Structure formats: C-alpha cells, structure tokens
C-alpha cells in the first residue's frame, strides 16, 4: 500500500533542505519498500506570491488527506511588512490548528561527535538527550481577543490573550507522561504559575494527571528558572512539558546545546498520531540560496515521520544511524564546522547521508 507524503518546502532555505530529506527518503523507500508517494505544495511566502494567502484551502485538504506532511520553513524579509493576517507564519499556524497538531515533540540530542560544536562545556552536554513536549495549538498563540486597538488617549495598544482550557492541558500532559514512560520517567512541567493564572491551572491539571503515572517523577519549574537551568545543567532534564510560547523559546535554547539549531528536528502530532514534521529552525534568510544550510534537522524530521506516522521504526533508525555515520566520518556543514573536519554544502551533506544508507 502506498503512503502519501505532502511536501511543503516553504521559503528561504526550506526548498534546499527539503530536497535533501527527499533524497534520503527515496533511498530508504527503495531499501525498506515503504511505497512513499510525494506531492509538493506551497506554504508561507511562496504561497502568498502565487495564491495571495499563506495556505490555500486546497493545500490544507491535501495535507489532511495525506499520511504525513514534511515541511521546510516559512517566512522572510520579503513578506515581513504584510498585514499580520496574511503573513507566511500564519500559514504554518493555520495548518497546525486545522490538523489538530497539539503535540510538538522537539528532541534535543547531542551527537557525541558534535560535543565541540556545543556552546557549553563538553562535560555539561555529553550524552544529552532531552525531549521538549510543546503545546502547539493553544496558549497565547491562539487566544482571543487579540489585535492592536486605539485607546481613548489616542495611542495604540497591542494585546494578546494567554488561555488554556483543562482538556488542552490534559492531552499535552498525557503525551508528555506517555513519552516519559518510554524514557527516563521524569517530567518537568514548565510554567509561570507565580504570575499567570492560566499556568496556575496548567500546574494543577498536570499535577492531578500525574496520579495516573505513579512511576513518573514530576517536577514543576518557572520558565525563567528553566531557561537558566537549561544552560546551567541541561542533563537534569528528561521530558519538559510546556505551553506554546515557552516551548518555542526553550527549544531554540536547547537546540544550541546540541551544536546548532540546524540539528533539531520536530514532530507535530494530533490525536490520531498523524503529523507534520519540520526542523525547529526557520527559513534562515541570512544564508538562503547559498547552499550552505545544514539539512540534518530536516533529514532527522523525516526519520521522525517514518517512526511516528508511518510506523516504520527500522527505516527511521536507518536514517538516524546514517546521520551518525556521516558525523563520524567528519562531514560538517558550516554551522557545526570545527578544525580538522570536512566542510560540506547542503547538497554534499544530503549525498553523504544517502551514501551512508
Ligand atoms: P532562523 O531559525 O531562521 O535563523 C536563526 C539563525 O540560525 C540564523 O543565523 C540562521 O542562518 C541559522 N540557521 C537556521 N537554520 C539553519 C540551518 N539549517 N543551517 C545553518 N544555520 C541555520 O530564525 P530567524 O532568523 O529568527 O527567522 C527567520 C524567518 O524564519 C522569520 O521569517 C521567522 O518567522 C521564520 N521562522 C520560521 C520557522 C518555521 O517555519 N517553523 C521557525 C522559526 C522562524
Ligand atoms: C517554530 C517557529 C514558529 C512558532 C513561527 C514561525 C510561527 O518559531 O516553529 O518554532 O513560533 O511556532
Ligand atoms: Mn521557533
């Protein structure tokens, strides 16, 4: 039976890195007889240029009917001055919301070969393996009311709303506990319960859910402290569960511990474990078009896609092992380059992974 994968390369370095992930998928497809069928669509700025909107409804329908979606990244200076309702990022937010992708898994794993590339001392990051479970369809990203309004005194005021309903907290909390059960059985729930009521409720719901997971050790931490602890002693964490905005910020920090944001993949899942897979980084306008972006985050996102949405763990393992091999062999894109290694382009890195498979 064939498996339909919608590709959404997007903007900036998106098309460059997705092309490499597709090359890798094509070889594992042949080797493991997965029956992958690819269909490419537009999202973000490139969709605005063609359709006038960052996510056409026909694209959304195709994604909803597919077995999985693999995305690059959206956004760029060309579209930064557009009204916020049609910015490239709105396309990504819309697909996450419409597909019900509430659970965003962002694993931060240090490949031992990259210990030198981490911004922290090697002993602080050796063996690092953290999973950030970010809520993705709620919180301040989606809360109403929102906007910019005119005040009586004539000045404008921008406003957003931080909201979480109990069911939203419970389902993301459950995903985190389930993940922890398969790992080191520790969950740290990150909130700002000393200031924000929405996160007082968050803490309460996660705490009561923990009764169903007596084997999992639950702790709570304020987000400011968590940001500090992530760079002080990152290995204290196993699973971190948090809301949409805090998860966005903390995962970029966690990325740097692994050497580069170009190494961090992600899976965004809904209740049926169908999902969208994308690197944690953005469209990197500063290096777009130069052929130097690191494609490994996207290649590793493709591996997550095989594991979580297509139930092809072996094929996923094969991709991850190939990435390890390529790093062993000393291949490095510019962002993770260090003395004595071989500097490679985006395409050469993709070729090396293909060869290692
Ligand atoms: P960014 O992640 O695009 O870039 C931050 C820095 O990291 C840049 O210096 C960039 O060159 C570098 N970088 C990122 N990915 C890399 C890779 N694979 N290899 C090597 N270096 C890499 O973040 P930004 O600059 O804040 O945002 C740029 C645009 O991307 C904005 O329009 C933003 O909205 C968008 N964005 C999109 C996504 C997404 O599509 N999921 C995520 C974050 C930002
Ligand atoms: C991410 C990005 C997005 C987010 C933007 C582009 C909407 O930063 O995927 O981390 O904030 O979720
Ligand atoms: Mn982000």
UniProtKB/TrEMBL annotation:
Enzyme Commission number: 1.1.1.85
Which GO molecular function entries does the Swiss-Prot or TrEMBL record give? 3-isopropylmalate dehydrogenase activity; magnesium ion binding; NAD binding
Which PANTHER family is this protein grouped with? 3-ISOPROPYLMALATE DEHYDROGENASE
State the Gene Ontology BP annotations.
L-leucine biosynthetic process
Places the protein is found:
Cytoplasm
**Annotated site residues (Important for catalysis) in this chain:** 141, 192
Q: SMART domains in the record, alphabetically?
A: Iso_dh
Per the record, the gene is leuB
List residues binding Mg(2+): 224, 248, 252
**Per the annotation, how and in what number is the cofactor bound?**
Binds 1 Mg(2+) or Mn(2+) ion per subunit.
Q: Which family does it belong to?
A: Belongs to the isocitrate and isopropylmalate dehydrogenases family. LeuB type 1 subfamily.
Q: What is this protein called?
A: 3-isopropylmalate dehydrogenase
Q: Does the keyword Cell membrane apply?
A: no
HAMAP family hit by this protein? LeuB_type1
Q: What does this protein's UniProt record list under function? A: Catalyzes the oxidation of 3-carboxy-2-hydroxy-4-methylpentanoate (3-isopropylmalate) to 3-carboxy-4-methyl-2-oxopentanoate. The product decarboxylates to 4-methyl-2 oxopentanoate.
Task: Give binding positions for substrate.
Answer: 96, 106, 134, 224
